[in-house]
Amino acid sequence: MTAVAQAPSRPTSSTPGHTPPVAAFTAFPELTRFILRRNWLRLALWVVVLVGMVAMVYESQRVAFPTQESRDAYAAVANTPAVAALTGLPYGAGTLGGILNIKIWMTLAVSIGFASIFLVTRNGRAEEENGRTELVRAGAVGHHAYSLANQLVVGGLSVAIGLLIGLTCIGLGLPAEGSLAMGASIAGVGIAFLGIAALAGQLTSTSRAANSLASIVLGVSYLVRAIADVQAEGDTPSPLSWASPIGWAQNMRSFGENVWWPLLLLVGLGIGGCLVAGVVESRRDVGAGVLPDRPGRAAASRALATPLGLAVRLERGPMIGWLLGGLVGGLFYGGVASAMSDLLDSGNAFAKAFTGQADSMLDGIVGLFVMATAMVAAAFAVQSSTSVRLEEASGRLEPQLAGAVSRIGWALTRYLLASVWGIVILATSGLVFGLAFSVTQGDPDQVLRIFTASLAYIPSLLLLVGVTVLLTGWLPRQAILITWIVYGASVVIAMFGPLFSLSEELIDATPLAATPRVPGVEFDAAPLVVLGAVALACWALGLWRFRTRDLTQA
Which of 499, 508, 507, 415 is nearest to 464 (CA)? Predict the structure, then answer.
């Protein structure tokens, strides 16, 4: 069991058998330091990744659109319903700051929303579910001290990321007010979903349910914002955008009008959610949730009695969500690929870096977008495959292995489910991409061409899952963190490696970049054979070690 904070011992009283009351926030500073100590690496990674993405994307867009003429041309392409639905309204699209907003703002907003949700739940409801919160409260610890410390740390992360994004943009030469407005809008989203996650943790009784409830709110907020932006007139937002916290932040319009007052709504939602969560916390029992657990069926179906049936039941939400995300991405890429190729000059350094050795700019863009769909499919496969370690760390694995189920059989079921569904996402997104692209080109042959190009990434996906299998077997406590570092490094190197002048040997050594970017280049089966062989070795070594080692909890 993970070590918990050593709370101060209860103060003694002169009256025998009498324990003086503890203030609501007693030991708050100690618990804040404890949460920082447990989460410093996760916090640092979120800061480095989100702030670093701003610098990378800005540099790539500065090189891609060096003249005002090229930026105006991009603004015309960005002012379409498909782009608005995916990345937001294209206000200020004729400026580098506006292009940066279009390219990265929505990704940052959604990412920091998930960061707040996962961190609040991990340090809150998950600790309560595992019994550690009750253990901490056995000392002289205030009833709300731990929750407040958790909220302060996560809120501080949002503020730090927003401030660093603003300072980074200023350092890159963008207007100061627009830079600070962009950073503040991102921080505001994080604070807003901090409050939502805090409340979700009080309403539900499990960490899985808390994450799901808050994530559903985030997804609905994104969807409402997308519908509102499709209904917008030019860059004038629809009134429906005010029904979404993400819409509030977007309406700050950084690098445009730089409207500051929507930040008050975001901060108010965050603080309000935390206050309501505090009231609920003071009125419920430790370990309980406000929403009653839904009673299950009197008898489980035969499918739930099998490892595969149980895995599908637990993963069905993410499976459906990631599939829909892949379909939307494929549709978007198919609709804008031709327009994007017309914008980029084949002699441009950015274009050469991103399109590789393609004979034509259009084929290079298509190859790049096919790789992007593969990244989405691989992200699901990696996330789903980490469930093996999560089940082990939570202690839920041992009861499942108490019956006639072998370790390797159980783990292989989880890993195969992640891989097969990842391939389904890869295939369907590639098919939709091909259909949408064939419509814009008037060429039905493009469907099969892009579909087969997508399937070429299957060995890469299996290798990334294999890394998870290997790490779970040999380094279980660090497996999830290192797995995501490997995935993130693979994505960054595949996308930006040439732009950073990294060696071709290093780029080709990563799973995603090693796959030939068909149709931009000729198909070569040799890299796929190597990737498949390495993946098989990782799976075999990881499963063997998982079978022979002791189970370890968090």
Answer: 415
